[in-house]
Each structure stands twice: as structure tokens, then as C-alpha cells.
Amino acid sequence: MMAFWYVVAFRIVAVLPVWLRRVIARLIAWGYFAFNTGQRRGVFANLRIMRPEASHRELSRLALRTFGQAGMNLVDFFEIPSTSDARIKSMIMNFADIHVLLEQRSGGRPFCLVTGHYGHWELAGAMLGLGGYRTHAIALTQNSWVVQRLYESLRVRFGLTAHDVRFGLRDLLRHLPEGEVPAIVSDRDYANGGEEIEFFGHPVRFPRGAALLSFRRKLVGIPGFLVRQPDGRFLLKFGRPINPEASDERSWVR
Fold first, then answer.
1. What is the pLDDT of residue 190?
2. In this structure, are residues 184 and 224 in contact, taking their beta carbons and an 8 Å threshold?
3. Which of 100, 203, 225, 243 would suit a FRET pair with 27, their CA atoms being 20 to 30 Å apart?
């Protein structure tokens, strides 16, 4: 059933005008907010930790915006197969500066991009491919072979190699082609073996994969996010680079 709806969504989004896609995204977001009690509670719980001083009304506004961004990301993802390379580039405000920005952060050394489920990570993968980078990601395998084929077609188009989450880190530790870039979505501890750190005053488990890979392969870790702007386009933002000469993997994470 999931495969059917994915295929339908890709087909429908390809022929809809942009304004109608945005309306659909908002309807999806409002529907999830209203009826998905579990996700709504989870978002509220996280926001209370981040903004303990906020009123319930303010938290509700932020939660609805969070769902709204997720809805927009979903519709944008369904647009990608029918969107030209030129159009994708135009969606990213500083696309022309990617090489300069990464050169500045990495100092010309090999690097690993570290990101999370914030902004638009799927579009960021397309952006890197269009920027000329051969990238490697660690990804979950989809339950439906139809959905998996859809993802694989996008990855081939943008030069991204996806490694199964069960052994992708091992593969990259053994062999990462020279000049190619690992890009790790590193904010969910799938293996339950993460490093315990304090985040917003609370102990959490942070995955060690990006740290392990960067430390052992002597890569500069560069935090990066593709963030939606008020006009609907995206801005690529990079954080402070993480030195690969850290004393050990634990200090790299921290």
C-alpha cells in the first residue's frame, strides 16, 4: 500500500502547479498535527525541553510550524524526479558558493559532511551531486521494493552511493574512494551504541558513526544543513569544522 501511494504522489506532484503543491503540503501537515497523537506529543515534549519558558500557545505554534516544514519537505521530495537540474540549483540561494565554502571549512583536506533531520537532507544530497561531488550515505532499506527502486533512481541521477545501515559504516571504513565524500545523517542512534552526551541539559545517546569514520580516516568533520528560507528557497549553512586530529573518537563526538 505504501508503494502505491508513493508512486501516486510522484505522478501527481509532477503535474501540479507550485501553489497547489504548497496547499497540499499544508493540508498534509495539518492532518498529521491533528490526528497523529504520538508524533504530536513527541514534538511537544522536545519543544518543552528546548523552550521551557514558552507558553502552551507558543509551543503549539512552533509544533504546527514543525509539522508544516515536514509537509513541505515531503512535497519537495516528491518533486525532485520531475524537476530539472537547473531548477534544483535555483532553489539553493548559495549553490554557486558550495565549493568555496567547503574549501574554507576543510582547508583543502578530505572531509565528511555531518548533518541531521533538520532542513532538507534529501535535497542536500541532490545538491551535492549537482555540485560535482560523489557522495556516500548510510541509509535504511525501504520495506517495499518499489519505493526502494524510486530512491535508487534518484541516487543514481545525483551520483550518490547508499550503504545499508547495517554494514555501511564498515564498508566506508574499509574503502572510501579518494576524493569522494561521506555525508552522514547523524542524529539517530539506530545501533543503540552511541556516546552519551548532554543535549539541552538532558543525557542523550549520540551516534558514533560519523566520529568513528572521521577519526579513523582523518577527515575534517563539517556540520552542514540546507535550511528553508521565508521565500521558499534554501540556504546552505555550515558549522565550525571538527578537527580530525582529536585525541580519540569520544572527544570527536563531544
1. 72
2. no
3. 225
Three-state DSSP state, 46: helix
Domain boundary among 49, 82, 115: 82
Please check whether residues 128 and 65 belong to one and the same domain: no
Euclidean distance between CA atoms 129 and 158, whole angstroms: 4
pTM, whole model, 2 decimals? 0.84
For the chain, the first-to-last Cα distance in angstroms comes to: 42
Q: Please count the other Cβ atoms lying within 10 Å of the Cβ belonging to residue 75.
A: 21
| 132 torsion bin: left (phi>0), alpha (psi -120 to 50), beta (else) | left
Do 196 and 146 have their domain in common? yes
- Residue 254, pLDDT > 70, answer no
What pLDDT shows up at residue 5? 60
Domain containing residue 42: 2-82
Q: Same domain, yes or no, for 97 and 42?
A: no
Residue type, 31: G
C-alpha closest to that of 113 among 200, 224, 227: 224
Q: DSSP string spanning 123-172?
A: HHHHHHHHTT--EEEEEPPPSSHHHHHHHHHHHHHTTEEEEETTTHHHHH
Give the residue among 253, 236, 251, 136 at the shortest CA–CA distance from 184. 136
